[in-house]
Specification:
- The structure is a single chain.
- This protein is α+β, with helices and mostly antiparallel strands.
- The protein has two domains: 160 residues, Ribosomal Protein S5, domain 2, CATH 3.30.230.10; 128 residues, 2-Layer Sandwich (Alpha-Beta Plaits), CATH 3.30.70.
- The chain is built from ten helices and eleven strands.
- Helix 1 crosses helix 3, helix 2 crosses helix 3 and helix 9 packs antiparallel against helix 10.
- The chain starts with 5 loop residues before the first strand and ends with a strand.
- The structure holds L-homoserine (HSE).
Length: 309
């Protein structure tokens, strides 16, 4: 029996903003969603069947509205060729609607699968352009495509992304609470404009944040995570969020903040303190009656990549 051809990709979780880098900075984490496309030549892409396991399976679409499927379609249109039908299987490990880039990962998986099917005609920059355009902001899509700590920007000329090296001695500890927070809701609480004082504050903070990562100087992280664009406003939507930051820092974290638009909180730490920082973060949420799961994660360096089918 001839086995149908399969294409298999992995896409990392991402944490956007990193405190003061609102809509610009993002970092990929070594926690991966996978997507497998089994081709049935002769069938039409509109007949694609979809199955899934893991996170968020009861909240996602299984028809043409599925984000992975839409991103495959969009990528095929960009390349200018039709995709065949078949079956799509999704393995979801990234918590859903928690500020860890699950929607970007779904988009990037679709872009990656279609690109793979057509023999990889698109560069990573072109893949990023499709993904960022679909998502509306590039700070999750850029590290999901490129991997690592990524500075990205979208303007009239398109999207730019640049990876900077990160220390392999640092780890991220995430506390994922048992409630979801949609990015749309978390953006709705932000003001339309800011004072010059707050803007200058953020320019200073983000400069120190970059110095912390560039020069591997963890002592700059706390100032780098001090943000006046989104964190203060969003903490009102995350019960226990403030306590999580306090407890994480007391337990030895370099610094802590909201992951993306929340509800997950993230701390950066050395390997020695990671476990106790996780326990402290969980206690921070518990003080507000919120239960949470802890994950200690290395940074990813690969971005979207092919797995052996
Ligand atoms: N920069 C976006 C926001 C990321 O904070 O709204 C969403 O994950």
């Amino acid at each position: 029996m001839i086995k149908n051809k399969q294409y298999h990709v992995a896409v990392p979780a991402t944490t956007a903003n990193i405190g003061s880098g609102f809509d610009v900075l993002g970092l990929s984490l070594a926690l991966y969603n996978e997507a497998v496309f089994t081709v049935e030549e002769g069938l039409s892409f509109s007949d694609l069947t979809i199955t899934a396991e893991g996170e968020g399976t009861d909240e996602m679409a299984y028809g043409p509205d599925n984000i992975v499927c839409q991103a495959m379609k969009r990528t095929a249109e960009t390349i200018g060729k039709p995709l065949p039908g078949g079956h799509l299987h999704l393995i979801n490990r990234i918590p859903f609607a928690r500020g860890m880039g699950s929607s970007s990962a779904a988009i990037v998986a679709g872009v990656g699968l279609a690109n793979l099917y057509f023999g990889e005609p698109l560069s990573k920059k072109e893949m990023l352009s499709i993904a960022a355009d679909m998502e509306g902001h590039p700070d999750n899509a850029a590290p999901a495509v490129l991997g690592g700590f990524v500075i990205s920007m979208m303007d009239e000329q398109g999207v730019r992304g640049e990876t900077i090296p990160v220390s392999s001695e640092w780890q991220a500890v995430v506390a994922v609470p048992d409630f979801e927070l949609l990015t749309k809701e978390a953006r709705a609480v932000l003001p339309d404009s800011y004072s010059r004082k707050d803007a200058v504050h953020n320019i200073g903070a983000v400069s120190f944040l970059l110095a912390a990562f560039f020069q591997k100087k963890p002592e700059y992280l706390r100032i780098g995570l001090q943000d006046r664009i989104h964190v203060l406003y969003r903490l009102t939507l995350i019960p226990g969020g403030r306590e999580v930051v306090e407890q994480a820092e007391k337990a030895g974290a370099y610094g802590a903040t909201i992951s993306g638009s929340g509800s997950t909180m993230i701390a950066f730490t050395d390997r020695i303190h990671a476990e106790q920082v996780g326990i402290a973060m969980q206690q921070g949420f518990a003080s507000a009656g919120i239960s949470s799961r802890i994950m200690v994660l290395d940074f990813d360096r690969l971005g979207v990549h092919r797995l052996k089918a």
